[in-house]
Amino acid sequence: MYINDKIRLKKVEINILLIQEHLESMQRDPYGLEFEPWHKEVDSIWKYIFKQIDCMKPDVQKKALEHIREPWTSYASHYVFSK
Fold first, then answer.
1. Taking the model in full, what pTM does it have?
2. Which end of the chain is more exposed for a tag (fewer CB within 10 A), N or C?
3. What is the pLDDT of residues 4-16, one digit of tens each?
């Protein structure tokens, strides 16, 4: 694995942790004033994650996609269409 891919994979892992914290907050307060800002921030973090994955070699992409599968599925099923 190239060093650039290792760095990108680590960035993905760190940002997934940030997303999980946001999702917990969004679930606790779905009608609060902070929901929309959280939602926008999580959307921007997902965009960043997918840009990082797009730059990876195919074998590392597969590993990264496996890593984000559960949080992405949860996010997509609960929040993608809630705007």
1. 0.85
2. C
3. 999 999 999 999 9
